């Protein structure tokens, strides 16, 4: 692979590389005397790029990175080049604000490479003859898709550059690239360590609905950019924005105003008569009485995002006019307060009180109001899709085709909403092909759920704007969204088309990590088979250039999620490279005092401290299953430092406190809204107490300390390993001393001894805190509590004792306690409930959605830290284990089950795959095992053709059995 070229420089369209959501288009034109024998281009850009050669899409990148440790990509140009004129084109999007995907740096690109032209070589590097232009078709003020994700795409084709990536495009008015001024934020470039994402096409399975848009309401809107909630300067500003306008009514009338979240006053009286809309999840309909003439409308909103996208829906038949100047001829629709500093708010706003009449200047505050002019809209496709009033159209054919759909203007005079189903959640770049749309607005909206026949956009959070927009100025449109979107349902909304519209095709371009999908699991219980498949699907779609926590609203890499996902990946795909890359990012972005960020890469101090301990266990699990000695040598210090960093919570007793007041530092802001110990936030609150001297938190500390000791030992640091082991033993003894309740014969959640949870007791078993004499009572407790995780219900309507996300740790504890039967019951009932609920991927929580109208159940439909049953079914029921840490070439087949009588499957291995088939019949156990060359099977005899056989008598009855 080509190494970094010292001759290349970072370039942009200006020397600063600053600004929010900027897009830069780069072109490099060269001529070949003959058809090229090939070449390569290496490239890195902040934050993301798309590469084209001669108008053909090549790939995207780079892999998510810490600016201090960036990775460059190298692309093979063979097959794209031709004799004569050639062009390399790169579109770069710099986020320019804080996300959970990146650390804030600067916009920039650097590229270098060589093309072979017969016997000569053409060197390509920035800046040289590269040209650049800012792509102004993209709206730089577009709202974020959600709080952790970069802005949505709102693209105006009339303002854009056209087919600028094509060979024959005229770039004579483009400028030479500008070398960025130093100092630069990026460290030394290193080659990419993971493969490129899939880039395969995924087609919809069906058309869910075709709906004709009704034109019954007028929408009035504005968008005001604000300072991102995670920006360092945000605390300097008040958390409120204000706006006003005047509503003209032709007569006295009672009217329904469709509004979103906020506080509203009409003629000085607060509007309180409100109800949830039947049509839109986040819309609230307010009953308002308008007097004839002008009515002052004042409103306030908490500024919790980086934009305020205001919408108001008014019945058209009411004939209401809107003007901030009480004049239909005025071009000012709204006046909106600029972001106010805290001292400005306290000095000028508080003394005035709410509401204002709308014409104050806050007692002399200069530049108090910003004007929003007539003819502009907030341009938020998600809110406008959510507000749609539609009529379902009966299909002329059943079912609808998924391509070449024709929508006559006569039948859809006000627009079309057509919804597609991909069949399950995927991570894709949506792509659409249309004709007849000159002058139209085309939206694509995404969700995991349906509501009223289309994608339900706000079921989780009112700030999840999962939609993109394209303003077309040409008849035909071929539009592929730049960034991936995670969803199952896609609603395409087309408005203002001049005539008939043809929707030629809709598809997704996969942005998922390429895995070897070669493994399977089958057993005597078909329900367990379906659950394994459910978990495998979930795991596959969240693997991107890092491990994503979920697909829809976050798509970010969290520590605990990553560790659990790795174990699931081991059973389903066996990939090691993505975990190594993920762990490298966690280590690279550690704080100076050794705390691991909850989510990476990230630009602010977001810590979930038990997640950091889970990460350390993940370090050890990765080495144990990969044998990556290089990682052990590079990571042992980080592991040891991370567990020792927890001392800021250590009390005189020697245990950690999970209470903020006990934190041994003045920097209380480090603690997130989840508190110090996140633990199981999906369990019912009256079941699990995670505060104080937490059993859960301290048992997790013991497990992380032992994992760190093992990693040190693998790296040859025996002295440090011994120190960590000794300390882990002291902490475990102190937990037994303070938190073991001899009366209940259980571990209490904390010193209050009011709660005795499955979480705390399972972790004490899992991490070796519980000693042999304590195990019988813990076993009885766990078996009794988890006999029914749903409190006697067939569904989780009343909550649950254990969430699916935390199920990984509880199930590990059950297997270590010798309770495979209980583990199997939990898997069957709880994950079986998901299947019965229609799940195609695993949910974040066991949550029965009681309020179907309002939504907001927090339950993401594809969260792979809930996919752990795949790991247990492959490891414990199929029985594939790796008994020698760091040596995956030695395996055992050790089934551990109470109810399964036969199982078969394929388990991934670096050398190929392991195939197992075992059966218990007539009191006899027999297993046939096929392994790749150089893999050894313990507890089995070789019988030729690479096969091994284990065979012994197990006796009568249906009881726990193991091959030891």
Could you characterize the architecture of this molecule?
The chain is α+β, with helices and mostly antiparallel strands and 964 residues long. The chain is built from 14 helices and 55 strands. Strands 13, 17, 18, 31, 32, 33, 34, 37, 38, 39 and 40 form an 11-stranded mixed sheet that branches. Strands 20, 22, 23, 26, 28, 29 and 30 form a 7-stranded antiparallel sheet that branches. Helix 7 (629-644) packs antiparallel against helix 8 (695-714). The protein is globular, with a radius of gyration of 30 Å.
**Judging from the principal axes of the Cα atoms, what is the shape?**
globular
**Cα end-to-end separation:** 47 Å
**What oligomeric state best describes the polypeptide chains here?**
single chain
The overall strand count is: 55
Low-confidence stretches: 850-856, 956-964
Give a short account of the largest sheet. Answer: 11 strands, mixed
- Number of H- or I-type helical stretches: 14
Strand proportion, as a percent range, falls in: 25-35%
Mean pLDDT: 92
Rg, alpha carbons:
30 Å
The helix fraction, in percent, is 10-25%
Question: Would you tell me the structural class of the helices and strands?
Answer: alpha+beta
């Amino acid at each position: 692979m080509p190494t970094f070229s010292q001759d290349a420089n970072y370039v942009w369209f200006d020397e600063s590389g600053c600004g929010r959501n900027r897009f830069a288009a780069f072109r490099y034109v060269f001529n070949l005397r003959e058809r090229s024998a090939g070449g390569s281009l290496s490239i890195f850009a902040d934050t993301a790029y798309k590469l084209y050669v001669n108008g053909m899409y090549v790939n995207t990148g780079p892999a998510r990175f810490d600016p201090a440790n960036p990775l460059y990509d190298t692309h093979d140009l063979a097959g794209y080049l031709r004799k004569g004129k050639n062009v390399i084109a790169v579109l770069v999007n710099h986020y320019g604000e804080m996300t959970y995907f990146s650390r804030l740096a600067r916009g920039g690109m650097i590229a270098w490479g060589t093309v072979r032209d017969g016997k000569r070589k053409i060197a390509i590097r920035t800046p040289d003859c590269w040209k650049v232009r800012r792509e102004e078709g993209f709206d730089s003020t577009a709202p974020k898709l959600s709080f952790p994700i970069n802005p949505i795409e709102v693209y105006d084709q009339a303002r854009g550059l056209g087919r600028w990536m094509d060979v024959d495009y005229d770039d004579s008015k483009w400028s030479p690239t500008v070398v960025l001024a130093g100092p630069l934020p990026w460290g030394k470039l290193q080659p990419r360590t993971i493969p490129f994402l899939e880039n395969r096409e995924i087609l919809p399975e069906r058309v869910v609905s075709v709906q004709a848009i009704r034109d019954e309401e007028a929408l009035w809107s504005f968008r005001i950019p604000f300072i991102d909630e995670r920006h360092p300067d945000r605390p300097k500003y008040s958390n409120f924005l204000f706006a006003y306008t005047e509503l003209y009514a032709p007569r006295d009338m009672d009217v329904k105003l469709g509004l979103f979240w906020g506080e509203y006053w009409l003629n000085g009286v607060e509007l309180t008569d409100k109800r949830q809309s039947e049509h839109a999840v986040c819309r609230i309909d307010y009953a308002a009485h308008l007097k004839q003439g002008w009515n002052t409308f004042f409103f306030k909103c908490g500024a919790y995002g980086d934009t305020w996208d205001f919408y108001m829906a008014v019945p058209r038949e009411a004939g209401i006019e809107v003007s901030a100047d009480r004049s239909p001829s005025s071009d000012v629709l709204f006046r909106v307060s600029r972001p106010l500093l805290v001292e400005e708010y306290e000095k000028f706003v508080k003394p005035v009180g709410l509401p204002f009449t709308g014409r104050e200047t806050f007692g002399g505050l200069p530049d108090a109001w910003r004007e929003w002019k007539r003819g502009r809209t907030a341009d938020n496709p998600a809110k406008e899709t959510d507000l749609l009033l539609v009529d379902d159209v009966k299909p002329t054919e059943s079912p609808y085709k998924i391509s070449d759909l024709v929508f006559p203007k006569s039948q859809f005079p006000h627009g079309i909403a057509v919804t597609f189903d991909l069949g399950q959640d995927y991570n894709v770049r949506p792509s659409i092909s249309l004709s007849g749309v000159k002058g139209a607005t085309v939206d694509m909206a995404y969700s995991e759920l349906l509501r009223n026949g289309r994608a339900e956009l706000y079921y989780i959070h009112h700030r999840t704007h999962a939609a993109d927009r394209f303003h077309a100025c040409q008849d035909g449109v071929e539009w592929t969204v730049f960034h991936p979107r995670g969803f199952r349902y896609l609603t395409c909304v087309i408005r203002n088309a001049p005539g008939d519209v043809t929707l030629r095709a809709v598809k997704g371009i996969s942005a998922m990590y390429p895995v070897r999908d070669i493994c399977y699991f089958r057993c005597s219980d078909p329900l367990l088979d379906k659950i394994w498949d459910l978990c495998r699907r979930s795991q596959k779609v969240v693997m991107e250039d890092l491990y994503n926590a979920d697909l829809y609203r976050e798509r970010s890499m969290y520590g605990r999620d990553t560790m659990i996902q790795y174990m699931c990946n081991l059973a389903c795909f066996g990939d090691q490279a993505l975990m190594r890359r993920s762990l490298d990012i966690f280590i690279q972005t550690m704080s100076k005092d050794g705390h691991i960020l909850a989510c990476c890469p990230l630009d602010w101090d977001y810590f979930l401290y038990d997640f950091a301990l889970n990460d350390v266990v993940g370090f050890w699990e990765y080495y144990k299953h990969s044998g990556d000695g290089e990682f052990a040598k590079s990571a042992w210090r980080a592991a040891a430092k991370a567990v020792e960093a927890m001392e800021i919570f250590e009390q005189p007793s020697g245990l950690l406190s999970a209470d903020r007041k006990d934190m041994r530092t003045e920097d209380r802001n480090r603690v997130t809204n989840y508190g110090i110990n996140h633990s199981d936030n999906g369990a019912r609150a009256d079941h699990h107490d995670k505060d104080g001297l937490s059993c859960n938190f301290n048992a997790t500390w013991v497990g992380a300390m032992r994992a760190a000791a093992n990693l040190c030992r693998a790296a040859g640091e025996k002295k440090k390993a011994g120190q960590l082991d000794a300390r882990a033993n002291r902490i475990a003894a102190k937990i037994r001393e303070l938190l073991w309740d001899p009366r209940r014969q259980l571990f209490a959640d904390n010193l209050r001894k009011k709660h005795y949870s499955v979480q705390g007791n399972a972790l004490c078993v899992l991490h070796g805190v519980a000693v042999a004499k304590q195990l019988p009572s813990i076993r009885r407790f766990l078996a009794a509590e988890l006999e029914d995780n749903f409190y006697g219900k067939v569904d989780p309507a009343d909550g649950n004792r254990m969430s699916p996300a935390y199920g990984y740790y509880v199930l590990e504890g059950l297997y270590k306690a010798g309770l495979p039967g209980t583990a199997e019951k939990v898997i069957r009932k709880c994950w079986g409930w998901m299947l019965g609920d229609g799940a195609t991927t695993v949910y974040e929580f066991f949550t029965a959605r009681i309020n179907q109208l309002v939504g907001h159940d927090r339950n993401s439909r594809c969260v792979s830290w809930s996919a752990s049953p795949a790991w247990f079914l492959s490891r414990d029921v199929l029985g594939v284990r790796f008994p020698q840490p760091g040596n995956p070439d030695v395996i055992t087949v050790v089934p551990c089950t109470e109810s399964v009588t036969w199982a078969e499957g394929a388990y991934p291995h670096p050398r190929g795959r392991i195939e197992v088939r075992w059966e218990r019949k007539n009191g006899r156990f027999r297993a046939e095992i096929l392994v790749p060359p150089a893999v050894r099977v313990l507890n089995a005899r070789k019988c030729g053709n690479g096969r091994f056989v284990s065979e012994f008598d197990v006796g009568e009855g249906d009881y726990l059995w193991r091959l030891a």
